[in-house]
Specification:
The structure is a homodimer of 321-residue chains.
Chain A lengths: L9 E7 L3 E8 L4 E8 L5 H18 L6 E7 L3 E2 L4 E2 L13 H9 L3 E4 L1 H12 L8 E6 L3 E7 L2 E2 L32 H4 L1 H14 L16 H9 L3 H25 L3 E5 L6 H15 L9 E4 L7 H8 L4
Parallel strand pairs in A: 1-4, 4-7, 8-11, 11-12
Antiparallel strand pairs in A: 1-2, 2-3, 5-6, 8-9, 9-10
Helix pairs in contact in A: 1-2, 3-9, 5-7, 6-7, 7-8
Chain lengths: 321, 321
């Protein structure tokens, strides 16, 4: 055990990724008691579920937490919390739909909840992170894709089929020239995803003659992290790229605010590591753009979940939904 | 009593307008038992509250419903359901904030709920109207202004200060040349409000040479109703105006859908009387524009609350929130 003082009850958080499935036992304030992983690429989903159940059982035994686990939360792509199934996930090795909740509950007899990664992030922030005590906020997940978890009046919004909060695919004039992987133009995803930031980098480097350390990076090796590091070292083009990204996020947030009147907007995920450079232009653009009702009323924050464990903590919080 | 069969429990619905305050006793399926009104323009808010309380008491006595009233619902501009106050309403004759819930509860001893008109419309549709049995839908109110009542997972969204659902002030490229009364450009309000439709009429008449009966109407006398009537009579420009309005509503709805994943979008209010001409282009534009997850998944409907009593029925449903 990594912590001296533990706060019951406990949950198991499972982060189901394309390559590995990482899981941990977590206490009620977000302390991780033990962590383990299994490969996701097993021949059948039954193999995977058997192995995961067996290793979770072993973890509970080792920690002497038998009967003290309040629930299992699984964060997974395309997870529908209302049906308990994974639906049409393209990056998992098994055919969909996958009745994940049933599979785990029948093996372990422990209440199980699944949700997509962005929703897990929102519940994680509310349970252990930056949104503790907040009843109205939006988590924007910035990574390979852009997603959202929206909490309004203390409830995580799910919607008819669990597809509420798909804010990466809300379209904006500032992206009208960018084709999204969904086949449409203008999605926030095309600006604020990892690839979106690399796209902006290519564009800004092409239209400017200014010196930039980013010019030394081969196009295929560009990453948001390299842009961020250059910006922190004083590179002006790199700073412009993140300033533009932040401003777009601020304008988008001004529209989101009119839907759910949030008190905070939280950046989460790999690309959000640049939050210290994204949030100031984001806040400014929000306050320049938003309806008077929301102006200067929304706090912009970086996730407070430990980067390495954020996805697991989000999943572990799902039973508290 | 207007109905033979009544379904308890009963509520009182109050529609607080700038000129008159209309109120009615309503049963649980939306039958109006009795209706009455008082002028809103009384010298003080205390006079108004005394008079309203007295007349509601008299109505309850006459109907012999003493002890059978489950609550009073008041639909009012700028009503904040969480504080129970009217905040900064510019079209009421008294200074804000007005602690309306306290004022009625102290006078009548009956549980009282207030909300803005768009939210009352949403709860009204869910309780007695087009959204009966639905847990995920958006009511778009079309009238002097454009508002929204959003129900997600069975909850009416309120937000930090009750300002969720201000969809009339979400901005879109199709309105980027239109200045809104809020001081910004591009709000849906500038297209789909009564004045928005008149604006479109002026514009479409100016850029076309085609014959139209709308040309006989002096600019100041143009109304959405006249545009609708001309369109129904076969006037092509009038049809184009409503087609454009409907298409804009459809594109806007495609973005709203990504926030809350609704199963239905319902048009409500005076301008929604043109729903039979607005909904077909709205549905088409929605399905052309929306992310694949929402395409062909959303029903578009006209309010099922009787026009004359829609506001009162919305208010009467608020105690069921």
């Amino acid at each position: 055990m990594e912590q001296n003082t533990l706060y019951p009850p406990f949950t198991i958080g499972v982060d189901l990724g394309g390559t590995n499935t990482v899981f941990a036992a977590v206490d009620s304030v977000g302390h991780i008691l033990a962590k383990d992983s299994i490969p996701t690429k097993t021949p059948t989903i039954e193999n995977w579920a058997d192995l995961l159940a067996q290793r979770i059982s072993a973890m509970i035994d080792t920690l002497r937490l038998d009967g003290q686990i309040d629930g299992i939360g699984i964060g997974a792509p395309c997870a529908n919390s209302s049906t308990g199934c994974i639906e049409a996930a393209t990056n998992l090795p098994w055919p969909s739909p996958i009745p994940l909740v049933n599979m785990m509950e029948s093996r372990l007899g422990i209440h199980t909840v699944i949700s997509n990664d962005a929703n897990a992030a929102a519940i994680g922030e509310m349970t252990y992170g930056a949104a503790a005590g907040l009843r109205n906020f939006i988590v924007i997940t910035l990574g390979t894709s852009v997603g959202g978890g929206i909490v309004c009046d203390g409830h995580l919004l799910s919607g008819t089929r669990g597809f509420a909060g798909e804010i990466g695919h809300i379209t904006f004039p500032f992206a009208s020239d960018r084709l999204c992987s969904c086949g449409r133009h203008g999605c926030l995803h095309t600006i604020a995803s990892a690839e979106g930031i690399c796209h902006t980098a290519r564009k800004f480097l092409a239209i400017s003659d200014a010196q930039s350390t980013l010019r030394d990076i081969p196009e295929k090796e560009m990453t948001p992290r390299k842009v961020y590091e250059a910006a922190k070292s004083g590179d002006l083009i790199a700073q412009d790229i993140l300033d533009f990204t932040g401003r777009c996020l601020g304008k988008a947030s001004a529209e989101f605010a009119a839907m759910t009147d949030p008190e905070a907007i939280i950046l989460f995920g790999g690309v959000a590591k640049a939050a210290d450079l994204l949030i100031p232009p984001m806040r400014e653009a929000f306050n320049d753009t938003a309806l008077f009702l929301y102006k200067d009323r929304v706090r912009f924050m970086h996730s407070k979940l430990d980067d390495a464990d954020a996805a697991i903590l989000g999943a572990a919080s799902l039973p508290y939904m």
